[in-house]
Amino acid sequence: MISIDLTDKQAIVTGAGKGIGRQVAITLAEAGADIIVADIDKTISNKTVQTIKKIGRKAEFKYCDISKLSDVQDLVNYPSKLDIFVNVAGIVLTTGLLDSSIDDIKRLFDVNIIGTSNAYRCALERMIPQKYGKIVTMSSSAGREGGPIHAFYRASKAAVINLNQSAAMTAAPHNINVNTICPGIIYTDMWKDILEGFVEETGNPDKKQLWDDYVKKSIPMGKAQTVEDIANGVLFLCSSLADSITAQAINICGGMCQN
Ligand SMILES: NC(=O)c1ccc[n+]([C@@H]2O[C@H](COP(=O)([O-])OP(=O)(O)OC[C@H]3O[C@@H](n4cnc5c(N)ncnc54)[C@H](O)[C@@H]3O)[C@@H](O)[C@H]2O)c1
């Protein structure tokens, strides 16, 4: 029987306070890893910590704003070793190409691009001397192509896909795997914010209908993804089953993207 065992592995998950990051942290813990729950929100993160402790694994909250290099340096040096670094933290900008403020675009790029760059750099600095590590980041199906909405978010996630390839090339000689996941559509707080924008745009206050319509028209399999779908992909990439997989952007999107 094939099983994934991450016993004795130490993992950091950013953005682990809620949504996809929370589930990634829980899933890695269920496979045996001890987890550092990194986020800017202590209150919600402590709930993730408590859930992991109930599973029987060690868990601790560490404050980290992923856009700040010194925070990420402190974070990667906190555990006694670093086997797994999953950078899930990210934000969305629901305004469009013509109506987004420069400050909002800069904040988006700071978190999604500089943040991912900090994650790759700091995790690699820690893992290269160990000659071992697994790094997974969160891109998006939105990063696969431009489109009529979320222009700057799409651009930020396209940058993650590209940076992932370069980070993987730097990591490859050191026995470190670097991959990014492109999730499709998952009903988290991030999507609740996006739906607020749809309400304003369409004048239709029925968020459930807007959600159902968007999922139906966007996803060939006809259903949204779950946080578990994405966490299971991360788990696979962090396991020895994926030892030969690096530099990849893996779509988990019900067929929304074909390349
Ligand atoms: N939900 C989706 O449909 C979807 C689709 C594709 C990609 N993604 C990506 O997946 C990731 C998680 O999305 P989600 O839907 O779970 O979002 P979410 O808003 O539900 O959760 C994001 C988490 O990141 C934390 N965070 C925000 N800024 C941070 C920062 N600067 N430093 C550290 N932590 C920070 C938040 O406190 C929160 O806990 C994001 O990178 C997002 O772009 C989401």
Structure, explained:
With about 260 residues, this protein is α/β, with parallel strands linked by helices. It has eight helices and seven strands, in the order βαβαβαβαβαβαααβ. The chain has helices spanning about 20-30, 40-55, 70-75, 100-125, 150-170, 190-200, 205-220, 225-235, and strands at about 10-15, 35-40, 60-65, 85, 135-140, 175-185, 250. It has a seven-stranded parallel beta sheet with strand order 3-2-1-4-5-6-7, sandwiched between helices. Helix 1 runs parallel beside helix 2. The longest helix is centred in the middle third of the chain and has 26 residues, at about 100-125. The mean pLDDT is about 95. Bound molecules: nicotinamide-adenine-dinucleotide. Nicotinamide-adenine-dinucleotide binds near residues 91 and 115.
List keywords for this structure.
alpha/beta; Rossmann fold; seven-stranded parallel beta sheet; 7 strands; binds nicotinamide-adenine-dinucleotide
Q: Which CATH C-level class is it?
A: Alpha Beta
| H/E element sequence | EHEHEHEHEHEHHHE
* Computed CA radius of gyration, to the nearest angstrom: 18 Å
Shape: globular
Work out the oligomeric state of the chains in this entry.
single chain
The ligands found in this model are: nicotinamide-adenine-dinucleotide
Named CATH architecture: 3-Layer(aba) Sandwich
What fraction, in percent, of the residue positions are helical? 40-55%
Total domain units: 1
Record field, number of beta strands: 7
CATH topology category name: Rossmann fold
The CATH superfamily turns out to be: NAD(P)-binding Rossmann-like Domain
Low-confidence regions = none
Tell me the span between the first and last alpha carbons.
32 Å
**Structural class, from secondary structure content?**
alpha/beta
Major beta-sheet overview:
7 strands, parallel
- Strands side by side in the biggest sheet: 3-2-1-4-5-6-7
What is the count of helical runs? 8
